[in-house]
Structure formats: structure tokens, C-alpha cells
Write a structure and sequence with these properties.
The structure is a single chain. The protein is of the alpha/beta class. It is built from 5 helices and 10 strands. Helix 2 (about 65-70) links the parallel strand 3 and strand 4 (about 75-85). The protein is globular and about 40 Å long. The chain starts with 8 loop residues before the first strand and ends with a strand. The protein binds S-adenosylmethionine.
Amino acid sequence: MASGGGGHESLRRMIQKLPFSFDGIDGDLRRLGVLLQEVFQLAGVRFAERLAVLNLACGRADETGVLAAAVAPAEIGFYLGMDLRSDAITEAKRRWELPGGEIDFREGNAAMIGRMEGLPRFDVVFIRHQNYWHEPMVWEGIMDEALVALKDGGYLVCTSYFDLEHELLAASMRERGATLLANLRNHTSRALPDAEGKSVDRWVAVWGQAL
Ligand SMILES: C[S@@+](CC[C@H](N)C(=O)[O-])C[C@H]1O[C@@H](n2cnc3c(N)ncnc32)[C@H](O)[C@@H]1O
């Protein structure tokens, strides 16, 4: 499991070099790790070999280690995180290392990922705490790109902070014809003290591409 106690712990070869920045992150990530394993099992997803994983709107990408652990027995061969916030990207770069693989964090617009040269298609596109409610048009663009970035047979995995936002995302994915493989409410999710009805990784869902 991810550790805040000084890092240097291998999660399927993903190395955490810095502790997390805030109290409580360790616990949130432990719960997220369990949740991801549950939702992959429910979706009938089993990963194999070396994966390319894209973490869109990743912020600090604190979940990088548990994501690597959740795709076992597969390993991540290429991992890319992207966010608009340069401070968060700088912090993510300092925290994570992938010996024997390629890892990169880029400051950039997730809705433009298709225009970036030299990127492979991805086995998994992950979006933690998607922000559909906040900026629906922006997130329409991000979700378009997320689906296009997938390999054939790849999976899109998203978590949400609150029920309505998750429903908006699910409706948008239905309109795109994406196949919902599993949708799970996290009953151990930590409530956000200043936002009623919101909690950390409250929902998670896995989609396959449109049939
Ligand atoms: C709710 S935060 C989630 C951050 C992180 N995934 C987490 O769970 O801690 C939403 C993130 O989306 C990012 N974001 C919003 N629009 C974006 C865009 N067009 N391209 C890349 N990142 C974007 C924000 O900078 C912010 O970090």
C-alpha cells in the first residue's frame, strides 16, 4: 500500500519517493486501492503484461501507486499524468518513479491529448474525481479524448465526488455509446467536511469502448 511515512516503497515497481502532502491521503488511497480491485473484479477485467496507463486531470496524481497495484498481475510500462496545474505536476514528478518503465507528468489540456505527438494508445485511461458539474463543456471535450485515447479493448475508469456529478458523467458516456461494465458506490468513502453530499472517491465506474 502507498505510504506517507517517507516513501521508497515499491507498488508493482512504482516507487514513491516523497511522502504525501496531507494527513488523510494514505487512508483515502488505501480505500481507493480496495475499491479499484472490487470494481475491476465486478467488471470482469483482468490485466496482463505491460500496460500503458493515462491519468487525465491527475492533479498531484497521489493515486499513482495504488493504480499500479490495482492492475496486478500486469505492470505499468508507460504511465502519463496530465493536468493544467503546473504546481501539481511538479509535485507529481518529484514523488513518482518507475524503474524499468517510462513515466511522465505533463502540464497540459486533457482535451487536447489527441493532438500530442508520439503518444501510444492506452490500455487504461483513469480520471479521479472528474469535474463534470463544474465545467460540463470542458469535460465533454475531455471525455471525447479519453475514449479516443484508448486501445481497442481498453478501459476508462473514473471516480466522482458526488452522486449527481457521477450521474451526469454516466449519461454523457451513454450518449457516446460507451459500454458501462461496472459502477460501484464506495461505502467507506471519507466525507468532505465542508461539502455536504461529497466524499472522496464516492463512486467509481469502468467503461469499455462503444460497441
Ligand atoms: C477535482 S480535481 C481532481 C484532481 C485529481 N485527479 C485528484 O483526484 O486529486 C480536477 C482536476 O482537473 C484538472 N483539470 C480541469 N480541466 C482540465 C483540463 N482541461 N485539462 C487538464 N486538467 C484539467 C484541474 O486542474 C484539477 O486538478
